[in-house]
Write a structure and sequence with these properties.
It contains 6 helices and no strands. It is mainly α.
Length: 179
């Protein structure tokens, strides 16, 4: 059975169905972007792993050679390349955080869509509270929880983003790891 759409509305037209469609488009965009990003990052991660292994092997070979100016220069280049690789690995950690955030957005939008399209849930504050608790419970980063709480405490988007950024900056200084 085809439902009435906003392009050709009839008596069956519903703003709730239109909202659900827009939420579905948003979820599809987020999930499509995540899938594309995962594939690219997978290739890059494999490449960086190979580079680390190759640089370690080159460094070992160079270290076993007789000392010379050329050997020392080559070792400095190895050290510089390894530093660049480690910086790239840190960037992957930030990408991983972005990916987690977008996955949370996607699942939150799905939950919102489900509650909106079910009249018995749509008008039930307990259902909304349950959805909010489910969304918050999925958060793994403190900055996400801070932003969520700030919005629900009535702060503006800008204020919530500032609080989350402050928390994330503090966490970045404390949690960056080198593989």
């Amino acid at each position: 059975m085809a439902f009435s759409g906003s392009r050709q509305p009839d008596l069956d037209w519903s703003q709730i169905r239109e909202t659900v469609k827009l939420l579905a488009v948003s979820v599809a965009q987020v999930e499509g972007g995540l899938k594309s990003g995962d594939e690219s990052v997978g290739v890059l991660a494999t490449s960086f792993t190979r580079m680390v292994d190759d640089m370690s092997a080159v460094q070992e070979i160079l270290t076993n050679l007789a000392p010379s100016e050329e050997r020392d220069r080559a070792l400095r280049h190895c050290a510089s390349t390894q530093e660049t690789i480690y910086s790239s690995i840190v960037a992957f950690q930030f990408y991983d955080r972005l990916q987690q955030c977008l996955q949370h957005v996607s699942s939150g939008l799905k939950g919102l869509s489900n509650i909106i399209e079910t009249p018995g849930r749509l008008y039930n504050p307990v259902e909304w509270c349950k959805l909010q608790e489910e969304i918050r419970s999925r958060y793994t980063m403190e900055s996400e929880k801070i932003m969520f709480d700030a919005i629900h405490d009535g702060k503006s988007i800008e204020e919530a983003l500032a609080l989350a950024a402050e928390s994330a900056n503090k966490a970045d200084q404390d949690e960056i790891e080198f593989f």
